[in-house]
């Protein structure tokens, strides 16, 4: 009799951990993506506009990425989007 | 629970909403009160109640200028705030790390009015923008929770999208507690959506550089690297201020000068924030030696003025009293909406985690930000009238009363929640709010009796009426809890 | 005055919107009467409120229009809630 609820709780716990780790990845990704936009627009006269738009897009990006189904979410990250974002941010920050 | 879009969004909304919400209720309540920070400061300086309404005179300005020169000679950084419709006195202000404080001078002759020292409404402004934790860490936390609020709003919209329009006005107080709290949360959330998105987004943009310290932009409202007094190149400011004031008025218009800053090489007359929707810091500079106009410096123009637009929208200092009341009501309802969300969160988790320390703490934090904070705010107002006006550093003592009272209420909530009496704890704190709120007009009357109290429609009556209204609301709220629904 | 007229328009429009919703109709125990009129009020009055608000200067006009939507919604919601509580009492009593 106890196997059912215990199994459900374990499943819920696993889902909770998966969503938490997904959330952490997404927040880091969105932060870097926004930072990349800020650096790209840094020297333009309309930088202030890009910075304002970036701050609106960041929470939107977090929600959209969190809304993606599991397969599509993994695909998005495996496709190299994260590498591009990381690369742009790092390049613009003068790390390379 | 399955991994569906609705569940994912529900998880994101509830956890981001709860964790950010505990801080956001404080930020929103502080911001709501800070909408009338100047008026609250006036209420907290009852000596100003009997001051006759007079226009600023050249004599008063020159006298204030002499006092500023003395301060400048002593190496103190201060500025002179000019009388306005909201605050009819001259003020010599300096930043004490949390608020701009200093003596108030008569606009008629520049004499010291000997008002009591208080942080006044600026305590709420500091609580709102940096949680009273300074401009670096405090700003960063409020910035993070602002982004958290936007995430909670967007995910909430996805969850509720189908019923967004049909259930716009649906509130069923007779339904099960969880359902009626959800109705209240949704109704207030959707109706306040334009205000919440505008105020959160503009706030996030204003303090954006705190979250991205590696970028610099024109959004920051403060000049971070202002030069301090330069004694080596100090230039004695001997010129009277009144002729400069006349020239500054010719540039920005009558009544549009907000404050005067004294630099080693210049005296700058800044345009008032109330002068225009776009909040820029345009100023006319004069030579302190002979009062000669050096130049006029205008703030950002064109696309660069976006920062000023954001600040104008957020602070609404350009607005009429009616607009400030609109912001106040929307802010109060926004706080209530978030508190309803926090209550919903704990109701939802009572079934699975009832009796655990984690839930007791969640209940206690929810209670102490929802009711504890307004009680502490009223306690702050009470302390203003009960602490002797001439006591040294009484402004810091008032702030201590506010935070100690809030801490006591948190401890009360923790103890009562831990003992499983959370409902009684809500009632007790609601009673505290009712007593302090309903008693404030009486305290105001008694403490101003000696200084010629007269019943009239002014800031004192407005603050008293608001406190009384919130007190009555709290009394009604506790009676609703007592019904044990 | 402008704010008051805008508020009145929004309250009327949102009340009409509420009365058109099946859930609220069930709570109030009313049918879908005067549907056409309510729909017209719901569509026209927000535009009237906007036109009235536009007599103010620009950012204030927009803030006023949106602010009155929020306040009007709270008032209309309050009226509908009171009506639904009253409509429920006889049924509970019976």
UniProtKB/TrEMBL annotation, chain A:
Protein name: Uncharacterized protein
Transmembrane segments: 20-41, 47-68
The entry's keywords: Membrane, Transmembrane, Transmembrane helix
UniProtKB/TrEMBL annotation, chain B:
Transmembrane segments annotated in the record for this chain: 12-36, 144-165, 186-206, 325-347, 359-381, 401-418, 430-447, 459-477
Keyword Electron transport part of the UniProt annotation: no
Pfam families named among the record's database cross-references: PepSY_TM
InterPro entries noted in UniProt: PepSY-ass_TM
Keywords assigned by UniProt, alphabetized: Membrane, Transmembrane, Transmembrane helix
Protein name: PepSY domain-containing protein
TrEMBL record, chain C:
The entry's keywords: Membrane, Transmembrane, Transmembrane helix
Phylogenetic classification of the source organism: Bacteria, Pseudomonadati, Pseudomonadota, Alphaproteobacteria, Acetobacterales
The protein's name: DUF3325 domain-containing protein
Sequence intervals crossing the membrane: 36-54, 61-85
Organism: Acetobacter suratthaniensis
Source superkingdom: Bacteria
